[in-house]
Amino acid sequence: MPKPPSTTDSPDSPDSKDAELARLRAQNAEQAKQIAELLQRIRELEARLAKDSHNSSKPPSSDPPFKKPPPRSRRVRSGMKAGGQKDHPGATRALVEDPEHRIVVPLEGLCSCGRDCAELAIEVSPERRQVIDLVVRREVTEYRTVTGVCSCGQVHCSAFPDALGAPVQYGPGLSALAVYLTHYQLLPYRRSAELLGVLAGITLAPATLVNMGREAAARLAAPVAAIGQSIVRSAVAHADETGMRVAGALQWLHVLCTSLLTFYAVHAKRGAEALTGIGLLDGFRGILVHDHWRAYLSTPAQHAFCNAHHLRELIALAEADPVLSWPKQLIALLCEANDATIAARVAGLQALPAPVVEDFFTRYDSILANGAFFHPQRLPPPGSRRRVKQTPAHNLVARLRTHRGDEVMRFVTDLRVPFDNNLAERDLRMPKLKQKVSGCFRSHEGAEAFATVRFYLSTLRKQSIDLYPALVMTFRGQPPMPHLP
Fold first, then answer.
1. Residues 276 and 288 in one domain
2. Separation of alpha carbons 355 and 361, rounded Å
3. Within a domain: residue 257?
4. pLDDT of residue 71
5. Which of 128, 305, 306, 469 has a CA that sits 20 to 30 A from residue 207's CA?
């Protein structure tokens, strides 16, 4: 005879209902956890898709063509129309006092009396008009030696100058123009050779132009070493780095610069190993402005962070969550502080008034305290010791609070320090453009030669020194030494 079912096995029993309820609650909690993780993942992906050059460190060239990013400039409309304003002083090109050619326009036609105007006595009028044109032509200088026989019978022969080591070679003017086109105007070697062939009728192989660049780099050893040492002695310098393709591999172009000097170095590494290998920052004791890359923090310099990076991160937070007010408040505060420092420099002040500085720091701390409240630190589950990934907002707030006075707001307390690191970014822009135009460098030696010539020309450009005459002097063995403050 079968055993009757137990009451505990019945689906309507209290124990069974409690077990089912516990299972459903656990399942609900697990689903809620998964939903929260998925929502966070969706927010992270949406934030990544929303990033462009105005709210991240992505370059403008990476912006999609079908999406116009919001304006990055803080300038506001003045209300005046574009172009020259009414009653503004104009600028007209002045006449040249010593033109290469003078043409006197003769009289033509007949007078009303029937006499030919060409027969009249003429007087040149003071009115002048000039045409400015450009003539590029090849100029070949041939050297010949001579022989002579002394009365004693000995034969003497003159010698070619030491610089003439081959039957045909190129002079300093041509070499300087080739390097100017490839290293400053950033034309590819093949197009530069084509341009010289069209304008001057000089047929050059692209490899010849490459050798000219390497020769210029070798002749610039003394000036470039002096530029590097002068930057080391400066009070404020800027540092940055960017990726560069060399011989098919990723290399890094590092820049260390001031408002008057530029120094480049190519290295296989990006971090502290590269900075040690380059060697300049080991002796730098001034204020180094950078984008809070941790490798720079390992150097013995004092530090100032680029606030343009902070503004872009704050803009990204404000756009991702328009309800948050603290990112907009901090953006306004940083911009206000920047305007105050600019006005102080224009007025010739050595420092901002102490009450103004104190007010900026008080408001800064209050805003970030509000940001810390909305973006608390994520803690690991109970009993777990693993690291928990923090949100970008929390990381930004923590960085701005940790490096509050010495790095982020140093531009307020020391008027020598700029608001951002745009100087270094501008110095990296042209080498980056060279790579976009010409592709990668085929050898490490070629990349180093380009960097050497380019930072010498960048230094001369900052000091308003004419580049082409300086390159001509370089190929004559006398490269001009820039001013070394």
1. yes
2. 10
3. yes
4. 59
5. 469
